[in-house]
Automatic annotation (TrEMBL):
Protein name (database record): Uncharacterized protein
Species of the source: Leptospira ellinghausenii
Keyword Transmembrane helix: yes
Superkingdom of this protein's organism: Bacteria
Parts of the chain that traverse the membrane: 43-60, 72-88, 100-117, 129-148
Annotated keywords: Membrane, Transmembrane, Transmembrane helix
Phylogenetic classification of the source organism: Bacteria, Pseudomonadati, Spirochaetota, Spirochaetia, Leptospirales
Length: 283
């Protein structure tokens, strides 16, 4: 079906991430760090679940005595942790914990049980205390991750009210975080990210020729929310890995929209500054 609809047996998800399979070995090593440890504000699998270290050590030292099933599971666990960064198309937009390793959850729990039982049964209070601290640490990281996700969910809810009010046909964003805030409304609009002023000009020209009377909005963070200084700092960090936030020439954008759209308005809505207009069409 994928071959018929999208001209590729693995479908659109694979095609969209195709460039990620061609990155350098150095990039793969950076992804190994971010997916398994920590990099670019991304909490990796082992940093999220530090109990993995004693777990792996336990099965390495007891490999000959454990069942064949646990041998297979422990080997699969280690190999998956090692291999995933070298076959993944990216390290995630906002990776937090075991997102890329969900396949390991069940075997991980199976392997973890005898270790927990052994530590709890131990008379060594240091082992017990360390176990409590490690579990508490992972639990707290889970709460932080949930709060981050909740904040992004609120972005989606807030932006949905904007799209409902303005009802645009085309939405152009400065960055992918903005794009993701559109949520399920993505399927109701033509949604794009434009990284340069030149791309904006090209887009407006093409739309003027092909999409007359369609409503378009350009969306950026409000300057009081995201100052130019903050934008520069964030982009410097994103240069190490991630998607930058565009810097549009606003005078040029406004001039182009005034020329090529009717009902042109500049609106401040919630966290955003929005340029809105209805495409006139080519003369």
């Amino acid at each position: 079906m994928n071959e018929i609809l999208y001209d590729h047996i693995f479908g659109t998800r694979f095609v969209a991430n195709l460039s990620g399979f061609k990155v350098s070995f150095a990039q793969r090593l950076e992804w190994f760090q971010s997916l398994n440890f920590y990099a670019d504000k991304k909490i990796g699998f082992l940093a999220y679940l530090p109990i993995s270290f004693p777990l792996i050590f336990f099965y390495l030292t007891h490999f000959k005595t454990v069942s064949n099933i646990k041998k297979s599971l422990s080997l699969s666990l280690v190999l998956t942790i090692l291999v995933i960064p070298f076959i993944a198309p990216n390290d995630g937009f906002n990776n937090w914990g075991p997102r890329f390793y969900t396949v390991l959850i069940l075997p991980y729990l199976i392997l973890l049980k005898p270790l927990i039982v052994k530590i709890v049964a131990s008379k060594n209070w240091k082992f017990r205390m360390n176990l409590i601290l490690i579990i508490t640490y992972s639990f707290l990281l889970g709460i932080v991750g949930a709060k981050i996700q909740k904040s992004k969910t609120s972005l989606v809810k807030n932006f949905r009210s904007i799209t409902k009010e303005l009802n645009p046909d085309i939405i152009v964003f400065t960055d992918y975080l903005n794009l993701y805030s559109i949520g399920s409304d993505y399927t109701k609009h033509i949604s794009l990210v434009s990284y340069t002023t030149e791309k904006n000009d090209q887009l407006i020209k093409i739309l003027s020729e092909k999409m007359k009377n369609k409503k378009i909005i350009f969306v950026d963070w409000h300057p009081l929310i995201l100052t130019q200084e903050t934008r520069n700092i964030m982009n410097a960090e994103k240069a190490k890995g991630g998607y930058p936030i565009s810097h549009w020439d606003l005078n040029r954008l406004e001039s182009s929209l005034e020329k090529n759209t009717s009902n042109f308005h500049i609106l401040d809505k919630q966290l955003y500054r929005i340029w809105s207009g209805t495409i006139k069409g080519a003369n």
